[in-house]
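Customer escalation, tier 2.

The customer says the design service returned an amino acid string that "doesn't look like it belongs to this structure." They asked us to rerun it and document both sides in this ticket. The original structure tokens are below, unchanged.
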């Protein structure tokens, strides 16, 4: 519930910011990219820093509280001063810090599951499904509130959810939870210096390719459906709902599938399903084919979402928070590149071309997974120290 409320708070703002910048502040669309890039770069930096701190033994609860406070400051700054410059001077920084809450909660969830002896894959799938559920509900509510009560009402709504987020943090988050700093030793008992973890980076690169493909396609779909296919204006919302519903089912099914097939094989299958989904989506000509494509999109991305974080964490080599932050940063960077590229592709070609080009992201993910199938983390002994 703590994760769900946090995701609902942040996801009410992230997709709405573009509308607020263009319609609320009257700025040009390219200014959305400037704000988004600045915010995502802050999120990438803070994710990595928080991951290092958690692995070094710092308590997790204060880090989540920092994210909540930053989120509150960002919303208050927008409510006090309605200006684009407040976005690129204060809000981007605070929203970027707040975005690190997701990676921090994923790290906490994995470490908590290990400490309490929970089924790790299943618990990871619960966490990931809460993220999808938050994104399924909160953006729709935010846009409804904006339509009924104006743009600033969305930020007031976000502040209300942040208050609930803070209350849950106080009652739910164990204030003393931390992991003991870990060192890696060899058979003779000597400490092994930290070395680049290539298998971890290969796993993160595969996730980056999945994210690149997913965001490139999903960001092009709404305008593709309405402008190029001529579907009704409710079509993108229907597509998103069907996709997210199937995605949650796939995420919750991932632990059982992992047990039978293995994480790498599931991700290879997800890449193949992604190629099929992009082909169907690029060929949409009616609501029925759109729903078929949405089902395939939710299936392939749900499998990736349910398996990807556990797959990357399997190469952590004792530094779980670093692995989790690297996974999240791969998703953020893939989304940043894809969302920026989509506009250029649509400008010079069309939205259908963006969907076709998303296939190359799925192909790249498949090839990375296939080429690194024999790579593994060297056997090492990890002890508290």
């Amino acid at each position: 519930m703590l994760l769900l409320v946090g995701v609902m708070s942040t996801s009410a703002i992230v997709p709405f910011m573009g509308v607020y910048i263009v319609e609320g502040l009257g700025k040009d669309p390219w200014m959305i990219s400037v704000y988004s890039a600045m915010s995502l770069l802050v999120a990438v930096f803070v994710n990595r820093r928080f991951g290092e701190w958690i692995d070094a033994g710092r308590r997790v609860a204060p880090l989540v509280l920092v994210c909540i406070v930053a989120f509150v400051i960002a919303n208050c700054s927008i409510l006090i001063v309605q200006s684009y410059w407040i976005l690129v001077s204060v809000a981007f920084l605070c929203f970027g810090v707040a975005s690190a809450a997701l990676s921090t909660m994923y790290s906490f969830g994995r470490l908590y599951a290990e400490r309490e002896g929970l089924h790790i894959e299943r618990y990871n799938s619960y966490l990931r499904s809460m993220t999808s559920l938050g994104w399924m509900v909160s953006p729709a509510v935010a846009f409804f509130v904006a339509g009924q009560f104006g743009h600033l009402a969305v930020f007031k709504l976000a502040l209300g959810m942040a208050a609930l987020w803070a209350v849950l943090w106080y009652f739910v988050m164990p204030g003393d939870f931390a992991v003991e700093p870990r060192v890696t030793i060899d058979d003779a008992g000597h400490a092994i210096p930290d070395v680049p973890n290539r298998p971890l980076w290969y796993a993160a690169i595969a996730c980056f390719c999945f994210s690149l493909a997913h965001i490139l396609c999903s960001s092009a779909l709404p305008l593709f459906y309405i402008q190029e296919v001529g579907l009704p204006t409710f079509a993108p919302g229907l597509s998103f709902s069907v996709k997210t519903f199937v995605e949650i089912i796939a995420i919750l099914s991932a632990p059982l599938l992992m047990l039978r097939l293995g994480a790498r094989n599931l991700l290879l299958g997800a890449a193949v399903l992604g190629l099929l989904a992009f082909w169907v989506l690029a060929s949409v000509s009616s609501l029925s084919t759109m729903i078929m494509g949405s089902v395939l999109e939710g299936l392939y991305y749900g499998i990736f979402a349910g398996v990807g974080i556990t797959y990357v964490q399997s190469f952590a080599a004792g530094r779980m928070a670093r692995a989790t932050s690297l996974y999240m940063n791969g998703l953020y960077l893939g989304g940043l590149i894809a969302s920026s590229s989509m506009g250029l592709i649509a400008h010079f070609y069309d939205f259908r071309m963006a969907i076709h080009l998303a296939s190359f992201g799925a192909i790249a993910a498949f090839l990375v997974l296939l080429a690194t199938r024999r790579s593994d983390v060297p056997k090492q002994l990890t002890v508290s120290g």
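Tier 2 assessment: The sequence is consistent with the input. Confidence is low (pLDDT under 50) at residues 376-385. The first strand starts at residue 182 and ends at 185. Sent an explanation to the customer and offered a walkthrough call.
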